Amino acid sequence: AQKVTQAQTEISVVEKEDVTLDCVYETRDTTYYLFWYKQPPSGELVFLIRRNSFDEQNEISGRYSWNFQKSTSSFNFTITASQVVDSAVYFCALRGNQGGKLIFGQGTELSVKP
Amino acid sequence: DSGVTQTPKHLITATGQRVTLRCSPRSGDLSVYWYQQSLDQGLQFLIQYYNGEERAKGNILERFSAQQFPDLHSELNLSSLELGDSALYFCASSPPNGGGRADTQYFGPGTRLTVL
Predict the structure, then answer these.
(1) Which runs of consecutive H residues, i.e. helices, occur in A15-58?
(2) Alpha carbon of residue B87 to chain centroid
(3) Which of B45, B74, B103 to mutate to test the interface with A (most CBs of A within 10 A)?
(4) What averages of pLDDT result for each successive group of 10 residues across chain B (116 residues)?
């Protein structure tokens, strides 16, 4: 079975703090794909990053960085110097090799206070 | 703006009714996916179409059906609506590389369905 767990339901930080959102996944597929999406209060789902299972290189994009570790089945997301505009629900998702469906975690609601 | 459009944005209807949600994928994308987001179930995959053919099915109720038309737009039909069908319904599309399996899904703004 495939599963994504985001243990942190809600996180509250003050602006300029760094924050890490955890994501742990389960799959038996040897090839799989991991994603992060952002859902701001307006409701749309915004794609942030995709990582293939055969590429463990970490990635940085501005204030965002992602740490992919196959050994611990984790794909964590760090926001550096958080801003109020980062307030949103963040979803980690997994796609296996057998089909196109995404399996989402329950989401982490991030609140950044000024 | 992801390039995926969904109409209507909001829909309010009564139990027992039937509604149709419409989705237009990004230009060039052949795959369309439907997801349901509810408070108790979270984000759940419903169904995928690729170039007009059904490709994968999730936990989609028998009261729900979908299709993808030759112009690649898709419709999700929900019938005999129940209170529990109230949710945000997302459509997503992905480009044709790899037969629609491995590529990133871009989501539309969603249709918020309220069943009273």
Answers:
(1) none
(2) 12
(3) B45
(4) 95 98 95 95 95 92 97 97 97 78 85 97
